[in-house]
C-alpha cells in the first residue's frame, strides 16, 4: 500500500517552471490524503489563476499515479495567503543564490553593491570615491558600473575616450584607471550621449556578461558595484549571480528619500543580501564663513540606519569639489583629499573595511568582534 513518504518523494520531481524548485521545497504541497488506492493531493499556488497550473497538476497526477498501489489521483488546487507567498519567494531566492553558476569574480572578493532607492542622491559619485578610498588603503579594487542606462563612471574617472578590449580567450579586459579596474556600458557606446534602449531582460544579461565574461583580477580584494536606482531586474540578478554581495544604502537627509531607500534595503534582505551600512549624502552645506545650512533636512540617514539596525557609515556634506571632480574626471578623494566630503568618504571607507574585512583576513572570532562592537555602538547611541 502506498504511503505519504513515497508520494512526497515523487512530488519532489514536480518543478515549478517559473521558480525552478520543486513544489515540496517551495511549500506548495499542503496535504496528502490516502484512501486505499485513491490519493488526493492538495497544493497551493501563488495565485489561483497561475499560468502554470495545468502543467503542475498534470505533473502531479503523472508522477503519483505511477506508484504501485495507486488507482486514481485527484488534485485540489488553492491559492496561497500573502504570508505564504512571501515565504515561498524567500525560499526561491535563497535557492537561486545557492545554485548560482560561477562567475569570473573570485569567491574571495568582497562585493559591495552601492544602492539607492531613487536617482539624484549622488550614488555614483559615492561608488567611485568609496572604491578609490578603499584602494588608497592598499587594497586591490574593482568597480562595475551596473547602472546600465545611466552610466556615468567613465566620465567620473576621466575615461571618456577609453574602450574595452578582449584577450586571446575572448574575455573582456577591464579598463584600468586611477589604480582600479572598471567596466561600464559607457565604454562600449560611441559617445556618452548615446541612449541604450534596452528592456529588462537585456539589463540583467548585461550584468551577467560583466560578471562572467570580464577578466577580473583573481586577486581583487573588493569589487564595488554602482547599482541602478530602485528594485528592478539588475538588483534581482545581482543577488542570484553573486551570493557573496553585500549592500551599502545611499540616501539624503530628506524623509522622502530615506523612505524610498528603505525599499532597497527591504529588497536586499528578502534576497538574502546583507545590508552593511548607510551613507547619508548631501548632508548639509557649510559656507566659508562657517554658516551651516541643512538644505535637504536632517536626520534621514541616521533614522534609516537605526531602522535597519546597521551603522551610519558617514554623513557626506555638499561640496563643490565633488561636482567639479565628477565632471572632469578628478574624484574628490584624490583631487581634494582634505576637503570635508573627501574626509567623510575616507571615513566611510575605513569603517566599511572594518565591517567587511578582506576575506583572507577574516576569521569567525574577528567577525564576531566586529559585530559585537557594532551592537555596542548602537546601544550607546540609543541610550
Strand arrangement in the largest pleated sheet: 10-11-7-12-6-13-14-17
Number of domains: 2
Reported CATH architecture of the largest domain: 3-Layer(aba) Sandwich
**Number of distinct beta strands:** 17
| Rg over CA atoms | 25 Å
> Number of helical segments?
13
CATH homologous superfamily annotation of the largest domain: P-loop containing nucleotide triphosphate hydrolases
Determine the N-to-C terminus distance: 64 Å
Given this structure, which CATH class of the largest domain is correct?
Answer: Alpha Beta
* Quaternary state of the chains: single chain
Secondary-structure element series: HEEEEHEHEHEHEEEEHEHEHEEEHEHHHH
Mean pLDDT: 83
**Which range does the strand content fall in?**
15-25%
Question: How does this model look, in words?
Answer:
Helices cover 39% and strands 20% of the residues. The chain starts with a helix and ends with a helix. Helix 2 links the parallel strand 4 and strand 5. The protein folds into two domains: 95 residues, 2-Layer Sandwich (GMP Synthetase, Chain A, domain 3); 273 residues, 3-Layer(aba) Sandwich (Rossmann fold), CATH 3.40.50.300. It has 383 residues and is of the alpha/beta class.
Short summary:
The protein is of the alpha/beta class and 383 residues long. The chain has helices at 4-11, 53-65, 82-98, 123-135, 153-156, 200-212, 233-241, 255-270, 300-308, 320-328, 332-335, 340-355, 364-382; strands at residues 15-16, 21-22, 29-35, 38-45, 72-79, 110-115, 141-145, 165-166, 172-173, 175-177, 180-184, 222-226, 245-251, 275-281, 285-286, 292-293, 312-316.
